[in-house]
Amino acid sequence: MGLALLLVVWLITFVSTYFFIAHPSWMWLPPVATTYGPQIDSQFTYTYIAMGIVFVAAQVALGLFAWKYRDRGHAAAYYSHGNIRLEAVWTILTAILFVGLNLMGQHIWAQARFQGPSPGSEQVEITGMQFQWYFRYPGSDGKYGRTLAKLEDPSTGNALGIDPDDPAAKDDIVSSTLVLPVNRELDVTLKALDVIHDFFVPEFRFKQDAVPGLLIHMHFTPNRIGDYEIDCAELCGSGHYKMRAGVKVVSEADYQAFLKAPQQWLTEHPWNGPMSRGLMQESEAKPPAPALQLAMRHHQSQAENH
Amino acid sequence: MGNVQNTPHRADVGVVDSSVQHAAHAHAAPTGFIRKYIFSLDHKVIGLQYYFLALASVFTGLILSVLMRIHLVWPEWAIPGIGIIKDEQYLGLLTLHGTFMVFFVLTTAPQSGFGNYFLPIQIGAADMAFPVLNMLSFWTTFAAFIVMLGAFFTVMPIAGWTSYPTLSALPNAGSLPWGQDLWLLSIALFCAASLMGALNFITTTLDLRCKGMSLWRMPLTCWTWFVTAILGLLAFGVLLSGGLLLLLDRNAGTSFFVPGGLVVNGVQQRHEGGSPLLWQHLFWFFGHPEVYIAILPGMGVASQLLSTFSRKPIFGYRAMVFAVMAIGLLGFMVWGHHMFMSGMSPYTAFAFSLMTMAIGVPSAIKTFNWLGTMWRGKIRFYTPMLFAIGFVSLFVSGGLSGPFLAQPTLDIPLHDTFFVVAHFHLIMGVAAIFGIFAATYYWFPKMFGRMMSESLGRLHFWFTFVGTYAIFMPMHYEGMAGRPRRYGSMVVAGGLFNRLAALMPLEKFISIAAFVTAAAQLIFVINLFWSMKKGEKAPVNPWEATTLEWTIPSPPPHDNFAGNTPVVNHGPYEYSVPGVERDYVMQTDPASVHAH
Amino acid sequence: MGTLRQSVGGSGRGDNFREGGGGGERYRPGRYEPAGYYERLRRYRLAVAVLLLSVIMIFVALTSAYIVRAGMGTYDTVTHSYVYDWKPVQLPNELLLLNTLVLVLSSGTLEMARRNLNARAVTAGLTGLPGVAVEPERSAPWLGITLVLGMAFLAGQFLAWRELRSQGMFLATNPSSSFFYVLTGAHAAHLIGGLVALFYAAFATVFGKSLATRRIVVDAAGWYWHFMGALWIYIFALLHFGK
Ligand SMILES: [Cu+2]
Ligand SMILES: [Cu+2]
Question: What's the start-to-end Cα distance of chain C, in Å?
Fold first, then answer.
């Protein structure tokens, strides 16, 4: 039985470790597409190496001891109540390991969350509602128009409740696909209209809850052109898994073209799924439904309503 | 089972304290069926009631998880009697799976079940300090269970076992009436019951120990039940308060957790001025200690078993006790690690993260000491020992993903993904379940007077151990690839969003592993019920263990020690003492057997 | 802990009296304290202390929620800014002060009952000695007065709620009114538990309980009751100053 335990525990350990080391790309963190992403990945790697060593050492010892110290009819077990010195050494070592890992990673967090966006960064407002994401650009005036809860109504095309009487709202752009310029820092404002949602783009190494009653400011800089998928990562109701949207990181020229004529630009450059990761299965690679790609100049739709 | 010790139990009880014999008269066993088995005041019957309640819950939770695994990979399957599982139903299944498992299994079986049965015996008491309260506590838990079943059969709540508002507070956001309300009511009842239980456990441990049973001679199981009770006492009141406020938000129009200006499904909400984060703080102030409420008793059982079956004293008894205390204490200072992505102030993340990493230290001490206990031992591989070793392995595997999630930096990609699901299932789910299995195989002879089948037990162990790893190891990879939790479907119909489609082969593998592992649990059930009736008769001390429960008949008489209080002369884990003929010294053996 | 147990003496250990569990405990006149009295007293005191710890946690949770909410701005969608919209409740201070007085008084009367029971226990063993008069039974009336005062407090709280309602302050009116009702309501619910215990103590003779049992019940319920008084003063102060 000791030998069986040794074999099974070791086998489990080595198979798991093998997959952690020789992972196929689809079983790992997707390729990074933001500037601060590599730092997160290297912190991940350090933690993973440290924990991997402890994991292998502990499991190997467990299997080994089970086999080596099995009851073979030998005289007696070793009578010992422990060893204070060993205990102390082990405690200090683990304390250094865990606290050290923790301190190593803190500056990345500080950089991502303590500092505000640099001046002149591009503003985008991300709003979650059951079960759809809306992205708003302030337009040339750099100001978001006022929103009113009583005007929120997706059926009229004004899901965000933008007040048409506010002059700042005239040039606001609302889109259901997020288009971002490459290598520009983004000043992101996160909002939720009904329940908690979470804006998660794995390639960006970015995740943040959007919370009703809170305005959350975040910043990051995408640095790789491509199409990615936004997943809602906080349970928000029956359609939670459907609450996905596309994000396109595009060149500066494309971005300007998008801002000029969002609807037209998106029709010409539809979001195409996470091609960058080679995950697309050919049979399912259909062009996106136009309805989901709907983008509009806000004041236009308002004008129709009036 | 060759070398079984058959000493008549009286000889092991030690010196009889004659002055307390009158107490025995207070303990005439009840005779009627109802007083004996239903509204029993006997801690052993209550312990078994809790155990079987947990057994019913664990199979409910298991079936729910099988249905979830079916929906994830073969959504088109029509289940007989249920039909095709819908996406909303998937959320209902996961909510109730989590709730049944966390509350009615992981909190109920290790603490209320085994703790009730064996804490009084292991400290040499005739019963818990307050038997009526004990009975009340069980029946309140039972009422909570019935109410939760009510939620199951009316409208399944879909807000997850964490029930975050505003989803859980606003009925038209999806937390429909009755389901969510019954869920909250059930949790409130459960909290009340757990508080009663905790009160009883603490008083019993402090006040009812027999002569010679100093705190430092208590078996580690008693220590973990004691510390778990303290955690429960401090944590459940907070959840109770939070649950009360959420019930008021739903039904009385208050706005503790709901801010103003919300529009749900086109309907403006009348609430104003609440904070959804407030619930998260209250919930996780309970929720993190709850993790330890689930796992600490398992640690106690693993310690007890590793020592017994390695025929060695536990390595570093005091370090183990201090580690349990440290885990308990730190457990109250780390709740914010569940909220790194919640919009909470990012500055507090520093403190929460540091505290959380610090918990790794006592956890590492425990692992080290378990290995140290096996080191140079003389290991006997009975089924309970297999599960204890399995516990250590799973504790290591599940524990080591903790330091990833404890760092806010790494929580950015990993939070709310399957990495988290893998982590907590290994550490608080399956490791704790292994503790329950180990305890069952270990104490079954004492509880039912018969041995369980060793061959069925081994079969059960191998299937469960390998199956568990097959299910939960791949979930780490899925989480790293960015597979979010609580997604009823990997692809969105229409084929637009299919980033996660690449993970389907892995999902299928997990589902198949889950079906096999779930089916293997039938081996356990068969063994359990078959052995109750047909198992080999158990002697007083089949494992040649040292603690007090192994000095009395199997099953124990109504008041445990038949009116005689034991006197304890030795520590709980005196195995292979040099110069002593047997390789173990019972706690009640005369002091002259082995001077310290 | 170990040393504490040593000092208590061996006779009571493992002595599991069960309240009402078949007549194990009988008061025997002629002995100052019946067997196991101190063990039982200690056990019930310990239980009350542990119970109060859990009660404290319930109110710690409510307090922190209260403080967080009172100091929190909420995001206003019209002005796009955080507004501090906490409008404190106008407490009916005179009435609440009167209630406080009633509750404090009830703690005093309960203490009188406890002392009477103790004196009776001491003198009960001395019957027949010349010049020693047995302490007359006064605990029941004292307990009765305590009960009446306790109920008067609850009635007073009810009046306070009615006064707030007449001002248009209902449970759901605004955050501070919600907290007012929740805090006072949770306190009242816990107080009712104390009333039940006192009721049991007051009528324990009717239920045929011994003097020793009554002493233990009054002692344990007393600790709980005094704590309820302190808790009320704390809540009152929180509502008054914490706004
Ligand atoms: Cu969602
Ligand atoms: Cu936690």
Answer: 43
